[in-house]
Write a structure and sequence with these properties.
Blueprint lengths: L2 E4 L3 E7 L15 E7 L1 H11 L4 E8 L2 H12 L3 E8 L14
Parallel strand pairs: 1-4, 4-5
Antiparallel strand pairs: 2-3
Pfam families: PfkB (PF00294)
Protein name: Carbohydrate kinase PfkB domain-containing protein
Keywords: Kinase, Transferase
Amino acid sequence: MDVVCCGIIVADVVARPVRKFPQRGKLELSDEMGLFVGGCATNTAIDLAKLGISTGVMGKVGKDGFGDFVISEMRRHGLNIRGVKRDPGLEYFRDNGIRPS
């Protein structure tokens, strides 16, 4: 392995189009939603792997559906994920939109 990227591993939920930004605690409808892997460590590692560089990721993900998704996506991109730990107590999603960190 040539590079190890350490840091944030997330699942980004993207809804579009955004016709109206919802008020806190309120919901708005959108036509479509997508789930994408994200985070600085993950995005960098995927881009390096696309350039043919042997790349691994170190970080922590929840032991839930979002964690399953990002693990699957990192594998699909050929990343070494030996340094990724699963934590059942890790909050991967906040319904109020505020980051836990």
